[in-house]
Amino acid sequence: MGLLGAAVTQPAAAQQFPTKPIRYVVAFAAGDSPDIVARLMGDKLSRIWEQQVLVENRTGAGGTIAGAFVAKAPPDGYTLFHCNIASNGIASGLYAKLPYDGLKDFSPITRVGATPNALNVHPSMPVRTLKEFVAHAKATPGKISYGHGGVGASPHLTMELFKTIARLDVVHIAYKGASPALTDLLGGQIPVMIANVPALLPYVASGKIRPLAVTSAKRVLPLPNIPTFIESGFPNFEVVAWYGTCGPAGVPAPILDKIHGDIVKVLQMPDVAQRFAEMVVDPATQSREEFTNFIRSEMTRWAKVVKDAAIPMQ
User: Fold this and answer.
1) Full-model pTM
2) From CA 299, how far away is CA 120, in angstroms rounded?
3) Mean of the pLDDT values across residues 146-165?
4) Which of 38, 74, 164, 215 could connect to 239 by a Cys-Cys bridge, CB 3.0–4.6 Å?
């Protein structure tokens, strides 16, 4: 009788959900493109649900601080996570004592969006193509440094993957965020940086930095003259910085289904699609099962990259 009662009440609870504000935890700083996406979604969901969605930024440790917080939250649907490539794809292979499992401790709901990275150089660097960069790096092993926004984030692992494939000896410098790394690239303190495309666009337009290639499968609209890694002679090299929505493990399926359906509605809104396009974010919704399988494949992929690149465990 108890099981029968639970089966009856769960759909009813989902129909009423939510009855109070929802906390939406983001692992990135306010103003970063994932944060902007989360706040845009939160505003739309607040209107659909008639309950406020409160975006909360918990940054640090490659997204694992936010991930650990949500993994321990009550599984009732009222704490959601802007889960991402760093916290749920890369972290399990990089951190020796990760306080959660990137898949088992979460209820994946849907992937939301993805944005490519780009490899960029200071204009003083004597290269204009990715092939020229590879040749220059091989001619000067260990003498070129590249910056990125933090250990464990997609730009860091993207470059480490590329170093392994292209057999490069390039030194990495980890910054506490993309902004200080970009500042040093603009000032010529570092010659190379890899970062999410949206943060780079104003500086590309002004000629202050020179992108050599993007990591998406196809060229991106704001940078139509910049080839992909694939076009530049590196087949199958594709990396996107993805993020989605997850809850802690154990959230009832009817509530997950409701959240999934409402997020899909938001991402189909014309004004949301337009804002995503402006930010170079590709909407990428998936079913709950598809997103679960995607996270599993990402964990396997990046664990191999960490091992092959001999990146020290954090």
Assistant:
1) 0.90
2) 27
3) 93
4) 215
